[in-house]
Amino acid sequence: MYIRVLHQLLDQSAERFPSRPAVEESQGGSISYCDLARLSDRLRDRLCQMEVHPGDRVGLCMRKSADGIASLFGIMKAGAAYVPVDSTAPPSRNAFIFHNCAVKVLIVEARLENGLREQFSQLGYTPQLIVIDGVGGGIPLTQALEQLDAIELAPAAITVIPEPSQLAYILYTSGSTGQPKGVMLSHSNALAFVDWCSDVFQPNEHDRFSSHAPFHFDLSILDIYVSLKHGATLVLVEEQLGKDPARLAPWLAEKKLTIWYSAPSILSLLAQFGKLDRHDYSSLRLVLFAGEVFPIKYLKLLKSLWPHPKYFNLYGPTETNVCTFYEAPSVIPESQTEPLPIGKVCPYCQPLVVNELGNEVARGVEGELCIAGASVLQGYWNLPERTAKAFLPGRETRWYRTGDIVIELPDATV
Hints:
414 residues; alpha/beta; Rossmann fold; 5-stranded mixed sheet; 4-stranded mixed sheet; 35% helix
C-alpha cells in the first residue's frame, strides 16, 4: 500500500498484524489492530452521517485512551482534521479552541459535557456532540456509537483519502500572548517526520512504544504514528502516573518498553527518584527526548543507570515538528557541563541562520534558526497576520522563524 495520508498507516498494519495489540492502556487493557481499525471505521461512518465533510474539523476532549486513538483515526477517515485539547484545562479555554476553529462535531467524555455546553451557550455556538461515558479499551466509544445507531443507523461510508497537503490535525499552543493559536499541520507534514523516524530508529512489530505526551502535544505524533505504522504496541502512560517517578519506574520495567519518548523533565526525575537500579530495563533500546534542554548532570546520571540504550536529543517547535537530531555519545566526558547540541538537520528540512535583519550569517556566528521543508506548518488557524510574521519576509522559500538563537558549527551541527 502506498501511504499518502496518516490513517492509511493503521489500515495497513491491521491487514498485516490483525491480532497483535495496537494499544495498551496503563492498567493493562488493550485493543488489537483489527478491532482498532474497525472501531475507527464505525466512527467514520457516524461522522459522515452527521455530515462531516473533507476539510471540516472535529474536536476531541477526553483522557488518553484506546477510545481516543480510535477517534483520531475515525476523524481522519472521514476526511476531517482532528483538534485535540487538554481535558483537564478549564472549559472556557477548550470551548474557545473549538469555537475558534469551528469544529462541526465534538467527541467528549460525559463528565466534561456540561461545562463545555455552558461555555458554548455563552459563545452562541453549538457543535454536534458524541458523548462517551468514560474511556477504556474502546468500549465506551463502541457503546456510544451503538446507542446512536439504535436511534438512526449510520450507513457504511468510504474512507476519504485526501491530498497529502490537506490538514490532518490542528494543535493549539499558548504562544507569547497566552491566547491559544492553532498550528495547522497536514498529512504530508507529519509523514515526512514519521518516515524519517522509520529510517533512523528502525521500529518493528515487536517494539513497545511509550505514549507519555498527551495527544494535544506534538510529541504524540511520533508515539502514535511511528508505532502503529510498524505494527508495534503503543503503551499509554496515564497522566498522573507519568508525573510520579516512584510509580513510573517499576511500571516501565513491568511493561518491558523498548522505545521511550518524552520531555527531559520526567527522565531527570526518574534518574533522581525512580530507584532505577532496582528494576530490569534490559528491553529498552531507545531513549528519545525533546521539548526542553536536558540538564547534562541528570543525563549523565540516567546514562549511568540505563547504560545500554541509544539516546537521541530531538529538537523542533510544534510548527516544524522535529527538525534536528543528535545522538548522545556512549560516554559523556566527566568534564562536559554544557547541554547536548541540537544536532544535525533532518533530511526533510533546510536550516538558515540569520541576523536581526534577516540576512544569513556565516557558520560559527550566532543567529536565529529558521527552517524550511516538508514538515513546516501550513499556518496558524484564522490568523493570517500572525502566519505572515512567522516566516522570513521577502523570500521565495517559506522560512519559519523558530525564535531560537543558535550557532552552526563547521561540521553543520547546530
